[in-house]
Amino acid sequence: MSASSFHTSPIATGRSATGIPTGRLAVWWVIASEIVIFGGVLASYVMLRLKYPHWGDLAAYTNVVAGGVNTFVLLTSSLCVVLAHHYAGRGDTEKAYKFLWFTIFGGLCFLAIKSFEWTTEIGHGYTITHSLFWSFYYTAAGIHALHVIAGMVIMGIVSMDVKEGRNLHRVENIGNYWHFVDLVWIFLFPLLYIAK
Amino acid sequence: MTEAVAHGGDHSHSGHHEDHGPEFYIKIWALLLILLIVSILGPMFGNVWITLLTAFGIAFVKAGMVATYFMHLNVEQKYIWYLLFSMLLAMGILFMGVAPDIMQYGGRHWINQASHNLVEFYQKSANKGEGGHH
Fold first, then answer.
1. CB A131 within 8 A of CB B122
2. CB contact set of A145 (below 8 Å; sequence gap of 6+)
């Protein structure tokens, strides 16, 4: 094997069976698996919600304002990450880095509002063991929040490379993941907050 | 043998081309916010069908817009579409397979008395104007 065939980047980065770049394909596979994870939780919730009409009374105690603000925050953070992708595509690493950190800030705001919300609800006795509705509420929103945290961490790591002008294609990849996190919330919000 | 992809390593562009400027994405974002406001105001009318249309119908529209314009699914290869729809189908199969048992109080050879009693309890509580929890 000649010295020129040694790769400085992982071999998988430079090949593809589908014509889709490996990293992007991998993120789509992750998103596909998340569809069945969140889909399973939400499908189960819908089934039980339809069966137990009194869940509407329990849902009255969720905070629509907090949920609405969080939806605004996530939609805005999705805008920021798609702009980061746009600027990364143009090689403007400074703006891409800036917009990635705007997105991470959006995630922080989301978690802060959620913390305030949950503190209030738990303080009023609506804990995860209060009832099956609240079990679903904390499980679904909690799994979603964990995905937000994971996305923020990965985005921070990607931003370090972007700052150095490396691996700019990863901005799109983490962007797709973040949009999916936003998508899940778009469905969680009406199910948990609006349907009272 | 797999083919080398034109864009790998340090390339920033994904290989599909959709040349929208920031203004386009900002317009989509603004539209999403308008839809969000409508979905919050809709249920305030107190009508089940308006609630379903605004809260849930708009959720699907918003999701479609995010998937199409932000995730660029509209220029993504068909393979990804097949993958995502397969997962949605799996979700649908889960729902259809489990729903008859979960959502019914009884069948040909079984009865879920506990669920039935629970719903009756809450209906009676609601009639008396009292609260309660499961």
1. no
2. A110, A111, A114
Window A:65-104, CB contacts with B under 8 Å: 68, 71-72, 75-76, 78-79, 82-83, 86, 88-89, 91
* Other residues' Cβ atoms within 10 Å of the Cβ of residue A81: 29
| ipTM of the complex as predicted | 0.88
**pLDDT tens-digit series, residues B16-74:** 555 678 999 999 999 999 999 999 999 888 888 898 889 899 999 999 999 999 999 99
Mutate to test the interface with B, among A24, A34, A130, A174 (most CBs of B within 10 A): A24
User: What class does CATH assign to A19-194?
Assistant: mainly alpha
Report pTM.
0.86
Taking a C-beta distance cutoff of 8 angstroms, is the pair A167, B43 a contact? no
Q: How far apart are CA A143 and CA A139, in angstroms?
A: 6
A104–chain B nearest CA distance, Å: 17
**DSSP state, residue A4:** G
